[in-house]
Amino acid sequence: MLLGAVYAGLMTGCATAPVEEKKVDIVWPLPPETPRIRYLDSYFGSSQVEVKTAGSLFADALLGTSDESGKGLAKPYGVAVDKEGRLYVADTDLGKVAVFDFVAKKFRLVGESGLGILSKPVGVVVDEAGRVFVTDVSQDRGIVFDKDGNFLFAVGKKGQLEQPVGIALNEKLGRIYIVDTKKHNVNVFSMKDGEYLFDFGERGHQPGEFNFPTNVAVGRDGKVYVVDTLNFRVQVFDAEGKFVMKFGEVGDAFGSFSKPKGIALDSEGHIYVADSAFNNVQIFNDQGRLLLFFTNLGGGKGETWGPAGMFIDNKDRIYLADQYNRRVNVFQYLPEKGGVPAK
User: Fold this and answer.
1) How deeply is 257 buried, as exposed, middle or buried, from its count of CB atoms within 10 A (0-12, 13-18, 19+)?
2) pTM of the predicted protein model
3) Phi, psi of 87 (to 5 degrees)
């Protein structure tokens, strides 16, 4: 009888009741202030999206294998999410774009072979049709794939791009905006076929000039937001590349920058800028006034180490590439009640 009871306990796993860990919200600012940003989750590899069968789980346990090896992020930079919730991550160490396909419950890589082979992808963005636009800093070109990862066409003829990094779309105008950090400018191409349209900017420190720009975002109003990294500022242009405004300066005070990279806008027009030296994200209003900052250096939940690219989806979820923790952290902007202060 005793042996039978022990066997039953082992098989059911109920010999000792598990202790539930109390979930604690990670929010900014800290209590008792009203929460404005909430940490949701982090994504790092295939085990978080693929559904394994009982047989494969038994084989992994028996053989000591794991699907995380070779199927995880290595050094994520660019991030994007399509309208169905698939997460696309440009990983500079993997040399591919990793796709967390929560719809098909699969983890896959884009750019493994053929005309669309990738070497060092940095920027990634997805249009309404599901086409994936990627910049490759080693190949000095942009590459466009269909929703299944098949090569469609390249962007940038030989010599047009020298070190393309950030990429953003204006779908109303059918334009691709690509930041070239080596040429210190922004190049504009057609979304239809990759044809070159125009460019704006040159090296310098005056309004409209750049010093190693990196990332770019396009607002709902069509304005173009460029991270002018080594001028330690953000510059804003209209859709045609005409200078509108700038904000930020070098320093360690709130609202200043040290190594700004990722940029994104939420549904209310707040501007989010990730700083890889400060290991945080600062939120500004549309006039460049600092409202809030969140996250900090570390490897725990809600922390980051070397943040890079950033994306905000239509539900105001913030996806932040956490380079040296090899993951993408996800946060939620809390609007209205518990939201960022009014502009």
Assistant:
1) buried
2) 0.89
3) -100, 125
